[in-house]
Write a structure and sequence with these properties.
The structure holds two protein chains of two kinds.
Chain A lengths: L1 H9 L7 H17 L4 H17 L4 H23 L1 E3 L6 E5 L2 E5 L1 H27 L2 H10 L4 H29 L7 H31 L18 H20 L1
Helix pairs in contact in A: 2-5, 2-9, 3-5, 3-9, 4-5, 6-7, 7-8
Chain B lengths: L8 E8 L9 E8 L4 E5 L6 H8 L7 E6 L2 E2 L4 H10 E4 L3 H4 L5 H10 L5 H14 L15 H13 L5 E5 L7 H16 L3 E5 L3 H7 L2 E6 L2 E7 H6 L1 H6 L6 H11 L13 H7 L1
Parallel strand pairs in B: 3-8, 3-9, 6-7, 7-8
Antiparallel strand pairs in B: 1-2, 1-4, 4-5, 9-10
Helix pairs in contact in B: 4-5, 4-6
Classes of the chains: A mainly alpha, B alpha/beta.
């Protein structure tokens, strides 16, 4: 998560209008999911990858590593669709085990492969969004979509304070470690508990102070802020529309 | 010189105790501060400086006594508080307690948006303060990727963009490196030129001596001395009572005049440079 956050601030596509990127990611995701062949997901997967690595400048190695995380889950999930345990062998493959067969039908193999591509395509859409768009920009889009302010304000505060919490936790752990707090499992567990407890107290204190600081800037229960806008470019919108049309056609007719 | 009738800040017998605490954090604080001045608040940790600051813009409400800002007493109604906070801005000691947004631009726009200004003005003001305080090079970075000094710059911009009449800086140079301390001092100098009244708490006696028009010494929730910086720093007994030491320049000046190396002047030197010129 921290890696993705760090990468998105360096992305070459960071200053592209966030609504454009959001629209691309969400529409592509939908077409990926409704597609019944591998073609639309394949198209979307390649374009998202090329955009993220080529235009966004995310290192290829990093991107592949990030893709491998969900890929593991996807493969396991797909295996469950393809592989059956049956008394009669099916048409695609069959491995006899005792009186039974580990087997699969052609249809289920095909379904598994399509499923695999659909999932990977969908993941690539989400990676495209999160590797090229900062959290603050995504929140801006959600606000424009009229998500209740309670949610967006909470997300904004959580996003800011996740990092402070992690920082505090790691400095507490370092100071525990330097006093042999992780000497063995027993002390390690106790140290962790103490760390969690003091983290809670610190977080409470911090929230009180933050509230004071916000109040002193005339906070009235509603966080109103402005962001710098990256105006949408007609050319980019046109390209997105064309691509989505192609993806839709591929998803529905191929 | 100063119009005696017109005070920017008046505190009359202000007492304040934190919830559930026997001891008063502020014990009968009375002081007057004229507009456009530079005031250094000095004293040990826990002497009541920060608590007093929080009272000045209505975050903490005194248990007794009252506070007047620009001639009118602080009112604790919704509108009254909005009014006083518009006039009195506080830059908190720890920027991480103040910055709530990951985006620098959003962060700075928060205060001025709350003043009900139209969007165009907000954008213009935010852009201007970003340029003015040298935030441009790191304005696109998230708050968690900023250094302590950069966060401090943003924290000052947060308040400056609201154009307060009084700006309170709670230990602005705490935990900053030399370069950023200098930068913060330069920014503060610029604020004075705009006519903003500045209240700053600090433990850096040498800097306070050079910078401040007036000093307020606090100890145990009380103001034990308020006066012109020169006069306060001459008085070693009162400095000691506040747990402070004379500024180095003044000490050296005292020794040099004592030995007859240089003659006594009407005004003692305020900085090393001034002392050097005397020699």
């Amino acid at each position: 998560m921290i890696v993705i956050d760090r990468l998105c601030y360096q992305s070459g596509l960071r200053y592209v209008n966030a609504s454009e990127k959001f629209a691309y990611a969400v529409l592509s995701l939908v077409f990926c999911l409704v597609s019944r062949s591998v073609w639309a997901p394949l198209l979307i997967f390649s374009v998202s990858g090329i955009l993220t690595v080529g235009k966004g400048g995310i290192p290829l190695f990093r991107y592949i590593k990030l893709l491998l995380i969900p890929a593991g889950f996807i493969l396991i999930g797909t295996a469950a669709v393809i592989v059956n345990l049956s008394e009669v062998p099916l048409d695609a493959f069959a491995v006899p085990v005792g009186g039974w067969f580990i087997t699969g039908s052609r249809a289920s193999v095909f379904r598994g492969i399509v499923l695999c591509f659909r999932a990977l395509g969908a993941v690539s859409c989400l990676y495209f969004l999160s590797l090229n768009t900062t959290m603050t920009d995504i929140l801006g889009v959600l606000e424009k979509l009229h998500l209740p302010p309670l949610f967006t304000e909470l997300m904004m505060l959580i996003y800011r304070f996740i990092f402070l919490l992690l920082e505090t936790a790691s400095s507490i752990m370092i100071s525990q470690e330097s006093r042999l707090g992780g000497r063995n499992l027993r002390t390690g567990l106790r140290s962790f508990g103490q760390m969690a407890a003091s983290l809670l107290i610190l977080a409470l204190k911090k929230s009180g102070k933050l509230y004071d600081a916000m109040e002193s800037r005339c906070y009235d229960g509603r966080i109103r802020v402005l962001s710098r806008e990256n105006p949408p470019k007609p050319k980019e919108i046109l390209l997105i529309v064309l691509f989505e049309a192609a993806a839709a056609a591929a998803a529905l007719f191929l | 010189m100063v119009n005696e009738e017109k005070w920017m800040i008046e505190a009359e017998h202000v007492c304040y105790a934190y919830d559930g605490m026997e001891k008063k954090a502020l014990n009968d604080v009375t002081l007057k501060i004229a507009g456009g001045r530079k005031i250094a608040f000095m004293g040990e940790n826990g002497s009541g400086k920060s608590t007093f600051f929080l009272c000045l813009n209505g975050i903490s409400r005194p248990d007794s006594g009252r506070i007047l800002i620009d001639g009118s007493p602080v009112e604790y109604s919704r509108k009254g508080l909005l009014d006083v906070r518009r006039k009195v801005g506080i830059v908190f000691q720890e920027p991480d307690d103040q910055l709530f947004s990951a985006s620098v631009y959003q962060e700075i726009s928060f205060g001025i948006m709350n003043l009900g200004v139209d969007e165009q003005t907000v954008r213009r003001e935010v852009e201007q303060v970003i340029r003015e305080l040298g935030i441009t090079p790191f304005q696109e970075r998230p708050a968690h990727a900023l250094s302590g000094g950069q966060k401090k710059q943003v924290a000052i911009a947060d308040i400056l963009v609201m154009h307060p009449q009084i700006m309170i800086l709670d230990e602005p140079a705490a935990a900053l490196d030399v370069r950023h301390t200098k930068m913060v001092h330069e920014i503060i100098e610029g604020l004075t030129k705009k006519g903003i009244t500045i209240l700053m708490s600090t433990h850096d006696m040498d800097y306070a001596y050079e910078w401040a028009d007036e000093m307020v010494l606090m100890h145990d929730g009380q103001v034990i001395c308020q006066g012109r910086t020169e006069d306060v720093c001459e008085d070693e007994t009162v400095l000691r009572a506040a747990g402070l030491d004379q500024p180095a320049v003044l000490k050296l000046y005292g020794r040099l005049t004592g030995r007859g190396v240089i003659p006594r002047r009407e005004h003692p030197p305020r900085s090393l440079k001034e002392l050097e010129e005397m020699l």
